[in-house]
Amino acid sequence: MNIQVYNQQGKESGTMELPKVFESAWNADLVHQVVTSQQANQRPTVAHAKGRGEVRGGGRKPWQQKGTGRARHGSIRSPIWKGGGVTHGPLKERSFKKKINRKMADRAIAVVIAAKVRDHELLVLDELSFASSKTKEAVSVFTQLSTIQSFSGILAKPRRSLVLLFKHQPELVRALRNVEAIEVKEARNATALDFVNRKFIVAPRASIELLAKRVSR
How many CB atoms lie within 10 A of CB 73? Predict the structure, then answer.
C-alpha cells in the first residue's frame, strides 16, 4: 500500500510504500488487553490508610481495666475511636502492574497504526526539522500542515497529535513542548497507548521505517 508523503509546507512531495506490517486487520481484543495493561502499569499507588500501629498517639491505656463502669480500652488509637487507625484500608504496597508480552505489545502498535492509516489519521512527512528551537516556528509549520484537508484538526485542543521522532532531537522537543495540542515521542519508545490516546500521528518517513522494523522483530 502506498501512502502520500508531504513536506513541511503541507504540499505533496511523493509517496511511500507502507511496510506490510501496517496493513494489519483490526483486533479489538488485542488492543484492549495491551492498552489496559499499559494503563495499569502507569497507575500510581498513592492511597494508603494508617493502621492502629501507624497513627500518632495512644501510647497509654486511657483508663484502668476495671472499676470505672465504662467499656475496657487499651488505646485511643483503636479503630473504633475517632482519630484511630483504619481497619482493612487501602495500602500503598498494592500493585496494579500487569505483564505484557513484547510480541503482543508490538503487534498492538501495528494494528493501531493500520487503523490510523485507514482513517486518514497518519501524516507522513519527508522530514521534520526547524531552523531554531522557537515555539513560534513550530506553530507556523503545523499551521501549514493543518491546511491539508484530512488533517485540519491537527492543532485542536486538548492534545490531539503525536509527533513521532526517529531519534532524540532536543531542538524539536524544545520547540514543540509548549504547544498544547502536540505531544512528542521517539519511535523506539512509543506504545500502543500513546497512539490510542492521540487523534493524529505526525511522523517523518524515517520514523515509520524505524517503527516498522521495531514491530516486526
Answer: 14
